[in-house]
Amino acid sequence: xxxxxxxxxxxxxxxxxxxxxxxxxxxxxxxxxxxxxxxxxxxxxxxxxxxxxxxxxxxxxxxxxxxxxxxxxxxxxxxxxxxxxxxxxxxxxxxxxxxxxxxxxxxxxxxxxxxxxxxxxxxxxxxxxxxxxxxxxxxxxxxxxxxxxxxxxxxxxxxxxxxxxxxxxxxxxxxxxxxxxx
Length: 182
Prior knowledge:
The protein has a four-stranded antiparallel beta sheet with strand order 11-12-7-13, covered by helices on one side. Strands 1-6-5 form a three-stranded antiparallel beta sheet, covered by helices on one side. It is α+β, with helices and mostly antiparallel strands. Helix content is 20%, strand content 35%. The protein starts with 8 loop residues before the first strand and ends in an 18-residue tail after the last strand. The protein has two domains: 72 residues, Ribosomal protein L6 (Outer Surface Protein A, domain 3), CATH 3.90.930.12; 82 residues, Outer Surface Protein A, domain 3 (Alpha-Beta Complex), CATH 3.90.930. The mean pLDDT is 92.
């Protein structure tokens, strides 16, 4: 039995869950999420908890059991608390600013890079070097943060670029073969 898939999902106060066949709609104080799951996995609401069960021990059902439970847990957490990722910009002259709803990045290119956020995602800039990506859908937040980071990934020699706030960089040593040359 799947260790993750067999855990019940507690539904917090103020969160409403509707199950219609293989489609689940979760409404909370932050918003509403809906998702269609594999029809072979059954989702039930019992005593204020969501229970995910699988019909057999076939390979496809075992692989979808834990996945379905994790996606449902992320939906419930997203509409009740929300998710966020924080990015940090390092480098001389590198900065971020917000104009309207667009994020403007100056990260060493000739032109300023504009990044419009997808619907349902809010981007805030703290100071000139911190970017906070927040919303209710964990998948879209991670994808948006990865796209922002991909604009200028951190350099492995100087550490310049955009990185996650909790990301540890291992900087490489530079050239050390300069001994004896004038």
